[in-house]
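Section 4.2 – Deliverable D4.2 (structural model, holo form)

The reporting period included a commitment to supply a predicted holo structure for the target in complex with cytidine-5'-monophosphate. Inputs used:
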Amino acid sequence: MEKRDVLYSGKAKSVFLTDDPDLYVLQFRDDTSAFDGEKKQQLARKGMVNNRFNAFVMGKLADAGVPTHFERLLSPSESLVRRLEMIPVECVVRNVAAGSLCRRLGIEEGRELNPSTYELFLKNDALHDPMINESHAETFGWAAPHELAEMKRLTHQVNDVLQRLFLAGDMILVDYKLEFGRYNGRVVLGDEFSPDGCRIWDRKTRKKMDKDRFRQDLGDVIETYEEVGRRLGMSFD
Ligand code: C5P
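Output (structure tokens):
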């Protein structure tokens, strides 16, 4: 496999073509952004930590039967992934109230959500990723009804696996965002799972261990991401 030209460069990751039309290289950069790209910073080692973190979590999900685009680690900050036709919808699950849910509905941060909520957002920077529902997705052709059903089923399956995984490390998986794509007619998990795209709290102290450390200037961002990984059984040596 040979790495070729860059296909797309996002806020924190870049996608490269390869000599195999079915495979892409996903590069995790040290760039960090929040608030629709208004706050930006380079955080040393972030690309490496998130690449390893994502590989670890994708492996756990694959073991549990969740289809993912992840193939294998290529280098400290690069992974080989299968090319998906991405569905422009973000699926967000919340087990505990935080972030935009609290702002939108006036719910106090930290309230346990039982059952967990499931929300859809349109991936569109210019519109600031507005919340949508399944009817919008179907009417405007972003996803077909059977795909929406599969995205919801897989997102809940991911929740079962990851809630247990984080709890075993004495952490709470507060919320997270997933993205899916199509591969040979199947709905497959794409993008990444790292502390950049979820909220994780220490179970006892409720210390924030995710990108809120960057958003809220709490410090020790990458050191804390590494602590999350270590508690899940990873090593970053
Ligand atoms: O901002 P909000 O509270 O809606 O985010 C819910 C979860 O989804 C958070 O864990 C956040 O990091 C993640 N998210 C994301 N990318 C987005 C929107 C939300 O990773 N574009």
